[in-house]
Amino acid sequence: MPRIRFTESNGTVHDVDVNEGLTVMEAAVTRMTPGIEGDCGGLCACATCHVYIPDAWLAKCGEAEELETSILDFAYDVQSNSRLSCQIKITQELDGLEVQMPERQY
């Protein structure tokens, strides 16, 4: 079972074991991890699941598609490593993935 490490902007860490096939957003929301809201339920229609992916993990998470890039325009403090966590499917290859959350979601 893959483990994802969520780090809040204040440094608080949450390690979450998740089933493959879920998204990073679903993992956070179902485990009540603070900092990821997922208001649209994973439809890539809001930016409340915005996270930062460390450079070492970017390639494994895949590239953002055009819709995701467009929705990120509504996110707070977008950076080159910003992603919407609803668009990252968890696979065994992502075991140990670390994501950082912005100070706020909007």
UniProtKB/TrEMBL annotation:
Keyword Iron-sulfur among record annotations = yes
Q: Which domain of life is it from?
A: Bacteria
Q: List the InterPro entries.
A: 2Fe-2S_ferredoxin-like_sf, 2Fe-2S_ferredoxin-type, Adrenodoxin-like, Beta-grasp_dom_sf
Its keywords, alphabetically, are: 2Fe-2S, Iron, Iron-sulfur, Metal-binding
State the Gene Ontology terms under molecular function.
2 iron, 2 sulfur cluster binding; electron transfer activity; metal ion binding
* UniProt record similarity statement: Belongs to the adrenodoxin/putidaredoxin family.
Q: What is the designated name of this protein?
A: 2Fe-2S iron-sulfur cluster binding domain-containing protein
